[in-house]
Amino acid sequence: MQKSLLIDPAKCTSCLQCEMACSFEHEGVFNPAKSRIKVFEFEHGLRAIPYTCTQCAEAWCMQACPVEAITKNLATGAMEVNEATCVGCKVCTIACPFGTINYNQSTGKVIKCDLCGGDPECAKACPTGAITYVDADWTGYGRMEAWAVKTHAEATAGPGG
Amino acid sequence: MGWQKKVLRVDLTKGSCEPEPLNMDWAAAYLGERGLATKYLWENMDPKADPMGPDNVLIFATGPLTGTMASTSGRYAVITKGPLTGAIACSNSGGKFGAELKFAGYDLLIIQGVASEPVYLHIVDEQVEIVPAGELWGKTVWETEEWIKAKHQNPLLKVASIGVAGERGVRFACIINDLHRAAGRSGVGAVMGSKNLKAVAVYGTIGVTVDDPKRFMAVVRETHALLAENDGRKELTELGTNAMIDSMQAFGSLPTRNFHEVQFEGVSKINPEAMEKVTPGGHRNLLANKACFGCTIACGRIAHIDETHFTIVNRPKYRHASGGLEYETAYAFGPLLGIDDIDALTFASFLMNEHGMDPISFGGTLASAMELYEMGVITDKDTDGVALKFGNAEALTVMAEKTGKYEGFGQVLGLGSKLLCEKYGHPELSMTVKGQEFAGYDSRALQGMGLGFATSNRGACHLKHDVFTQDMEDQTGQGKAKPCKDSQDLISMVDSTGLCLFTMAAWGVEEFQQQIDAACAGDWTVERLLEIGERVWNLERLFNLRAGLTAADDSLPKRLLEVPAPSGTAKGQVAELDIMLPEYYQLRGWTPEGVPSSETLDRLQLQG
Amino acid sequence: MDYVILGAGPAGVIAAETLRKADPAGSVTVVGDEPEPPYSRMAIPYLLIEDIGEDGTYLRHGEGHYADLGIEVRRDRATAVSPAERTVALAGGASLSYDRLLIATGSRAAVPPIPGMDLPGVETCWTLEDARKIAARMHPGARVVLMGAGFIGCIVLQALAARRLEVTVVEMAERMLPRMMDETGGEMIARWCEGQGVAVRTGAEVTGIEAAGDGLRLSLASGEALEVELVICATGVRPNIGFLDASGVALDAGVLVDHHLATNVDGVYAAGDVAQGPDFSTGGQAIHAIQPTAAEHGRIAALNMAGQRTHYRGSLAMNVLNTLGLVSSSFGLWMGADGGQRAVAVDAAGFKYLRLEFQDDVLVGALALGLTRHVGVIRGLIQTRIRLGPWKERLIADPHGIMAAYLECAPGGAARG
Fold first, then answer.
1. I need a labelling partner for A14 at 20 to 30 A (CA). Which of A57, A122, C37, C248 fits?
2. Predicted pLDDT at B608
3. B312-345, pLDDT tens digit by residue?
4. Would you say residue B236 lies in a domain?
């Protein structure tokens, strides 16, 4: 069964262990600026929201890529960027309505969550259980999926509709 | 690795910002953060220099583990000569600023000289600019952070700044980063203000690497697990540092009303339980607990003030969450002033962060002013009409704001209690060591802590030694010199790693050693690390001696030495410094005059 | 069912693949007039920088991808469409019958009517063939004039600079990127380019080009002359619709299509750069010659062609561009909506700019310079028409609160624990 990252912002203390784990796994360096998961903090730190790709069914990034550099890993369900193929045109970064695929200026390629091949480091590093990796049909999952549907091209009417 | 091997040197007089290689010989001998910055300070300034003058040097220092996955890796230290004490200042802070400075590629940021006009530093990796801050001068810490982020259109900038208190030289002004994390003590914010430096804003994308990544990650998994399972850690997570207030109350070591008493009848209204209690109106002080960078403890409290409370009922801008009560703030505004109003304490705590002041020193100074007021030495004419009586919550909040804005009697409070008490002819009322106010531990019940207060290189301070266990077991001064000295050395080392002291609840020196050894090139043994700790302590001592301090400054106020504790487990006792201090000097390898002997300096490679 | 797709760009290829899934038994033929396998023009600048080879521009990389899917890719060019017979006449002489036809013929580079545009060394920058000609003249130190500082011009600029050519940009409009940037943004990009050693002449017009020794001499309306080795013309593109003149298919600037990507002629659809379809922002019909629109058009047109009636809510104009390292993007009604409100943050020295446009409390457009993190949420906010409520005022005070606004306002989004 495919699994998904489940995020519970109420449990997040904003320690950023997830960001370090992510950048270490993907870049070999502790570097939140290069993390695929980002914790947003608001209201003097009262609220902290870990945020990353939900591997949405619409796969906006994959659809928009002009050179087939983004493909779906059928084992994990993750949309993965093939760095060798990505030319760095950034079209996916404006196509993704969640803003979860981003341009990495230092490599000239885009980066996004790839679920670490099925064993996400962010979930392992989270000390409070704010990020867990669970079965995709887990009952609480799908909130962002629902929103993805709303954003979907043919799901809403045109202007005035 | 671990280190970035790069120092950013900013000369505000010349207007220059130059990177330079980190002196790796010094890194090998002093590790990082507190230790390494002390060495740089020692090599870069005359300790006799005026702390508020152009020759003082201000160093922001990260450690080799800052910005790594080691738990609590968000620490940095500010090292300079402190205006409150005339001694070396070493103020440690968390939040996210320190790690960001490291991610931008720097181990140390050295600031020297004085800018001709207000400025701030804007650092994005190698790009460093000194930016005019005319528009920012006079703004609060909170306004400054917002303004800088908006100006550079970068919400990810991390900002360390001062408020008006720092601009105007309040002697206990601190540097606040990330809105409510403080390099708090000894007036480091006033030094920043004296340099016309309003803020340092940094964003880093370079990241941090370690020497042996595989081993480091394996070690870190174990050290994380040790912390996770530890009961002391759990208490910090669940209750925050204010858990201490109930222990100190029970033990009779909770300084109350300027140390006249050692227990406070109002504790239950300001302790962790009170923070979590829901009022009949539905208000709960505590909202959440949050972490500094990399921290798996998350002792930080996020709180808010009851909207109906007198402090903010007409001030909607304070109806938001911010950093809540930590133990030292709860102590310094609560028992020390005889105030049991949790909302007033929380509001005053907000004001400390908003205006950039150290709550311990502010509380201690206000406590001495309250005693002077109750004695009739100062009157309403001095205090702008405010009744500075113990227990007066409004006096606390009004004076906190006046001091933060440097208005009226706040300007006098801004002197710190030592100069304030001298000004009014009662130096004995100042509860300070080397000019710095006490943290919330009474030296009559906690003898070893008292020795630590007396000998701490930055003046009365609870964070440079840890003799709690021994003090709780035995309330005399016997045998306290050794644990005091050993803990001072150990903590000096931990303070030089980039990690937080609170991990010591679960980690011994071995855990630090394993993390350092995996992260840093070279062979790092426990012995070598402990020697570094001792070396750092002695170098701080040498700085102070050269600055003009003497053994006479290793003392405690008369009230602790001569007036017996009125209650608690140590009822009838005084601080037995006379027993402990000579033994301490001997253990340190110092002369009876408190000067490191030639042999000691040789052993620690501190000669020449 | 016989499906014929005219054009082998992204819209055509995605339509073909979608048809194959939606109608496994149908016959799918793609007609393209270029010799290479279907490729992406988006990738050409990276080919010029030599980041990739020609095969790096291909839309699909799998060996035998089209054959495996039973898609016939045929090299030819349509010359006429006869809806009555349901046939397409091809330049090669053949005629193709169709049950459903997709016009995805894209656009071609427009060349201004100036003497000398046909000289060797004066090249458009649109096809792989163009790229080869340009590459042959991209010697380090060579002098080049880039005519047109629009999207394509700016993206090519990156390649020219990377290959160390001495570049002068000549743009007729008063600013760079007149169609995707306002004055503030256009001025910042021009200043950025100049800082990188590129000469920028806006409000300047090339009046003629002539051979001069081994090189070329350009005359400007100002009377000046420029001596160069290469001229790249990037003054815009025009939809390929000439072959439809007699077809009865309704045309404007492009092929007019409705919310199902259907033309006025039964069985005939259009997609991509050639299609003038529903505009999400205005409710009118517009050509949005951009990759995401081509992909959406291709997919939705194909679903409708296969009988799966699918409504298209309209395309959103959006672009992202890297001009010598300065990343800019534009979305929707960035020029503002009638009676709307605006939020602006400008840091001229730091080359950062963010402009948000609201109608009521809904984001309808945006411009951004120097913003790369989570920029997609701008599309998310625009295209879901999320009501921002009190966040609008907060964004007017600081537009960089956009991510906070998004996390707070997105229904069922990550913000709600």
1. A57
2. 66
3. 999 999 999 999 999 999 999 999 999 999 999 9
4. no
Q: Name every chain A residue with its beta carbon within 8 A of the beta carbon of C59.
A: 66-68
The answer to whether the CB atoms of A33 and B204 lie below 8 A apart is yes
Q: Are the Cβ atoms of A21 and B298 closer than 8 angstroms?
A: no
Continuous segment of H or E residues that includes residue B405: helix B393-405
Instruction: Provide the ipTM.
Output: 0.96
Asked if residue C318 belongs to a domain, the reply is no
The answer on B156 and B33 residing in a single domain is yes
* Residues 6 or more apart whose Cβ sits within 8 Å of residue C32: C7, C8, C9, C12, C38, C73, C74, C75, C76
pLDDT of residue B1: 79
Query: Would an 8 Å CB–CB cutoff place B153 in contact with chain C?
Result: yes
Residues C381 and C397 in one domain: yes
Å between C395 CA and nearest CA of chain A: 14
B38 lies in some domain: yes
Domain that holds residue B445: 436-603
Helix/strand/coil percent split, chain B, to 5: 40, 15, 45
Is C85 part of a structural domain of the chain? yes
pLDDT band, very low/low/confident/very high, at A142 (cuts 50, 70, 90): low
Write down the pLDDT at residue A158.
35
Task: Identify whether C184 is part of a domain.
Answer: yes
Q: At C383, which amino acid appears? A: Q
**Does C400 contact B155 at a Cβ distance shorter than 8 Å?**
yes
Residues from chain C that touch B150, judged by Cβ atoms under 8 A, are: 345, 398, 400
Domain-located, residue B267: yes
Instruction: Please give the residue range of the domain that contains residue C370.
Output: 325-409
Task: Say how many CB pairs under 8 Å bridge A and B.
Answer: 86
CATH of the domain at C343: 3.30.390.30
Indicate the number of domains in chain B.
3
pLDDT band at C162 (very low <50, low <70, confident <90, very high): confident
Q: What pairing do the DSSP bridges indicate for beta strands B436-437 and B432-433?
A: antiparallel
Interval B117-158: pLDDT, tens: 999 999 999 999 999 999 999 999 999 999 999 999 999 999
pLDDT at position A136 is 72
Same domain, C139 and C187: yes
Considering C216, C235, C254, which residue would you say is the last residue of a domain?
A: C235
Q: How confident is the model at residue A149 (pLDDT cuts 50, 70, 90)?
A: very low
pLDDT, one tens digit per residue, over B512-562 is 999 999 999 999 999 999 999 999 999 999 999 999 999 999 999 999 999
* Predicted pLDDT at A1: 67
Domain closes at, from C206, C235, C264: C235
Whether C404 shows a pLDDT value over 50: the answer reads yes
Chain segment B162-189, per-residue pLDDT in tens: 999 999 999 999 999 999 999 999 999 9
User: Residue B242 domain-assigned?
Assistant: no
| C315 occurs within a structural domain | no
Which pLDDT does position A140 carry in this prediction? 46
pLDDT at res. A135:
86
Q: C331 and C278, same structural domain?
A: no
Structure tokens at B608: 């020449």
Q: Which two tokens stand for residue C89?
A: 């006449």
Domains belonging to chain A, first-starting first, are: 3-151 (3.30.70.20)
Provide DSSP, B381-401.
Answer: TTTTT----TT-HHHHHHHHH
Give the largest Cα separation in chain A, rounded: 50
Same domain, B25 and B174: yes
Distance from CA of B527 to the nearest CA of C (A): 46
User: How close A160 comes to chain B (CA, Å)?
Assistant: 34
Quote the CA–CA distance of B322 and A146 in Å, as a whole number. Answer: 33
Question: Does residue C191 share a domain with residue C133?
Answer: yes
Residue C406 contacts A, CB cutoff 8 Å: yes
Instruction: Annotate B477-498 with b (16+ C-beta within 10 A) or e (fewer).
Output: bebbbebbbbbbbbbbbbbbbb
Please check whether residue C255 is in contact with residue C274, taking contact to mean a CB–CB distance below 8 angstroms.
yes
Give, to the nearest 10 degrees, the angle between helix B33-44 and helix B481-494. 90
The residue of chain B nearest to residue A105, with distances taken between CA atoms, is B205
Number of structural domains chain C divides into: 3
Choose the mutation target among C326, C400, C403, C407 for the interface with B, i.e. most B CBs under 10 Å: C400
